[in-house]
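EI: anyone free to look at a 372-residue chain?
SC: sure, send it
EI:
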Amino acid sequence: MQVRLGLIVNPIAGMGGRVGLKGTDGEDALRRARELGAEPDAPRRAEVALRTIARSGLDVQILSAPGSMGEDAARAAGFEVQLVIDNVSGPTDAGHTRDAARALEAARVGLLIFVGGDGTARDIMDAVESRIPVIGVPAGVKMHSAVFATDPRSAGELATGFLDGSIRRTREAEVMDIDEEAFREGRLSARLYGHVMTPYDPALVQDLKMGSAADEDAMVEAIADRVVGEMQPGVIYVIGPGTTTRRILQRMDLPATLLGVDVVKDGELLASDANEKEILRLLDEGTPARIVVTPIGGQGYLFGRGNQQISAEVIRRIGREGLIIVAAKSKLLALGRKPLLVDTGDDTVDAMLRGYAPVIVDYREDSVRKIG
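SC: here you go
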């Protein structure tokens, strides 16, 4: 029996991540991202998800937006495509996404897959609400919403299971988004916009991002004291975003970017709010280096959510042995038995990171957690 699958790709999603722009909402941000050398990654992520579906052997008909909004990725994955809107001339925008989603609903697809970030999720929600099931393939910079699979391959597995009937459970998933202008200025302003219906398998979908608990403060201070006290002379420390990691720089009396990546060495700030290119330039000097990161609350991501500046190439050069993970106990407890997650966009680097790793949770205490 043939099943009908809708597909929408936001081709510019996530382009601002590696170059440190924290998003590509707006023409100015997109232009700046391109000037800094950013390249689209969403089409590749779409293809990974679709090839996973293709390997299942299901008889799937793809209905899609034209060109880079889905058609190209579907054909590259070996599918024939039926277009539901006319060719899109010029840059794609939110209006094109909403038009395509409405057309796919009218065509009665059994499932809609979209590729993008929280902004794209909002556009899909505006168009179809909870009337058809939706799966998000993560490709943005910020992905606070609960509509996304853990990575592109998991999105393909979730879609396959839903289409063949082996995954029957659905849930109302929250769609969150933040103000990108405030985000670039170091202020986090997030709100709930609504819900969409998504297929659900806890092993394949990410949860809603959660903030830190107020009682974590003393523990975070102890973690910062330990990390600073154990810093080695002559070593570069690439410090990722987050309230826990920000406290480390504050402990060193250095300015910190809450939502960016900072680089320090011997107590001095080498780069503030650094992008991938700046980090790689500093690593080219051959100096030993470490990466200090904290998992995202409620989701458990170490890489691939809001810190794309610490790219697969940065991680590869530093190596797994250079990874320092920090987190308050309450953050780990909130994750339950779920593993910490990575989604660097590079299968080899993701595989290198998997396994068990120590997490600094207090001044004299570590917790061992699985990176899955």
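EI: The mean pLDDT is 89.
SC: 👍
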